[in-house]
Amino acid sequence: MSDEEDFRPGAQDEQANSTAAEPLGGLAAVSGGAAGAAVSGAEARGAEARAAESSADASAAGDADSGRSADAADSVADASPAGRGGAESEPATAGAAPTAPARPRSRLWVTVTASVVLAVGAVVGAGWGWQAFATERTAVAQQQVTAASKALSDVTDLRGMALDKARASVASMNGFIEHPRPDYLGEATAKSLADAQQKLKTTSADLTYRAFDPPRVSAASPDLMPWTVIADVQRKQQLTQREDATGRARAAELKSLTAAQKSFATSASAVYKELAAHGEGVLTADGSATYASKIELRHAIDDGKKDATSSQFGGSGLLQIITAIDGVNAAQTAGEAAKQDPAYPVRAQIEDYARSIAHGVTLDFEWHELVSGLGEGWYSGTTMYHDGDGGWATIDLNFELQEGWSYGDVDARALITHEVGHAQVVRPECKTLFDGPTFNRDDEMWATAWAIAMGFDTPGSGTSAYGRPSDEQIAVAGQCR
After folding, report:
1. What are the pLDDT digits (tens) for 137-185?
2. What are phi and psi of 373, to 5 degrees?
3. What is the pLDDT of residue 233?
């Protein structure tokens, strides 16, 4: 009975059923149980083989469908006769135990692999995104600091030039401001210029020259590490802000200088216009003034037409107009006074003769008791000619010629003709002859030959002082008659 006590409840039910069918069922049951156990062990081994194959198939498929593994386990359980008795199922359960951990380990490997791939992909993607972002932000910061540096460089240069111009303008006008105002310049016009000069002086006085050296910054960050990029961008942004602020300050100074300079230029132009207008009137009205005095005024006015507000013209140019106007006025006064001299009628005849043979060359005349150190008993004269301003000359004659002219001395007329001959070289057609090989710019031989060619083959033509020119020279000079 001890064997019967080892049976599980399921086994007792089977024995009872067998006893009811067969009188010797107890033993048979035992024997049958043993046989059944043997059969179950073989089936269990078969189930293990099938489970191993199923597990291998599941692994080869990458555990794509975990449900098949569960089905395989169910098939193993169904193949075992353990359902007919607890004792018969124990060998199959013991044999299948080693294969159970293989299924969850395969799924774990697949899950970890997928997670790693996703994580790596995320990291690589994030790296590419950061690289693009960092490069773009660094480039933008570099563009901003470059633009700010260029703007600051430009405004610094303009400010420096404006400061130079302001100080030069102020300095150039000092002499004019200090000069007594002439009657022909309006008081309000003169005061406006003085005020504008003072304003420009005040605006530029406290300013100093500023140099600008562009900051040395790399175009890109040294590397793309987040902290490096952030520091590089912040530094460039700080430089941009600093240079923008400096640029605005210098732009404001430039604006003040420009406004003051404009006011100064407007006032200086107004003064120039008044002086020039008066000067033009003087040139037209003063008929007794010398050509030389009018040339000075003409030049002074014309110089201001180019740029009356420039420092090169400035106060000195305005003063030159005043000086030239005064010079013409003085020459006019002197010319009118000369007409009151008792000798003027004779002098006028001589001057008219000289102009009549000058072929349009403008002539000024001066009269002195001594010319070249020669006076009473000598006829003496000199000529200073000028190629520019249309060609003109100044002839200086001594008083003795007045006497000779009065009683018709041919040598007096010959000497006057000789002096007019000097002036002819300013005519283009005569200059070529004078410069050529026949005369080679010999002034005295030219003037003597020209006087002889004019019909004055006498000592007064110059032969007594310089010798007689060759016949060739007389012929060539005669081409300038």
Report:
1. 667 777 777 888 888 888 899 999 999 999 999 999 999 999 999 999 9
2. 80, 5
3. 77
Tokens of 223: 């590397």
Structure tokens at 365: 């005349």
Query: Does 122 have pLDDT greater than 80?
Result: no
Buried b (16+ CB within 10 A) or exposed e, 173-202: beebeeeebeeebeeebbebbbebbebbbe
Q: Give the pLDDT confidence of 342-375 residue by residue, as tens digits.
A: 999 999 999 999 999 999 999 999 999 999 999 9
**CA 187/CA 371 separation, integer angstroms:** 46
Q: Which two tokens stand for residue 141?
A: 């910061």
pTM, whole model, 2 decimals?
0.66
**Residues 6+ positions from 473 with CB-CB distance below 8 Å:** 438, 439, 445, 446, 449
Nearest to 314 by CA among 323, 325, 324, 303: 303
Residues contacting 442, CB < 8 A, separation 6+? none
In whole angstroms, give the CA distance from residue 468 to residue 461: 9
* Distance, CA of 197 to CA of 201 (rounded, Å): 6
Q: What is the distance between the alpha carbons of residues 459 and 410, in angstroms, rounded to a whole number?
A: 9
Q: Which residues partner with 392 through β-bridges?
A: 362, 386
Half-sphere exposure of 75 (CA within 13 A, CB side): 16
Q: Tell how many helices (H) and how many strands (E) occur in the chain.
A: 17, 3
Residue 27 has pLDDT above 60, yes or no: no
Higher pLDDT, 52 or 252: 252
| Number of residues that make up the chain | 481
Describe the strand order of the beta sheet including 392-398 as a list of residue ranges.
362-368, 392-398, 381-386
CA end-to-end span of the chain: 178
Q: Torsions phi, psi of 228, nearest 5?
A: -70, -45
Every domain of the chain and the residues it spans: 2-100, 131-326, 341-478
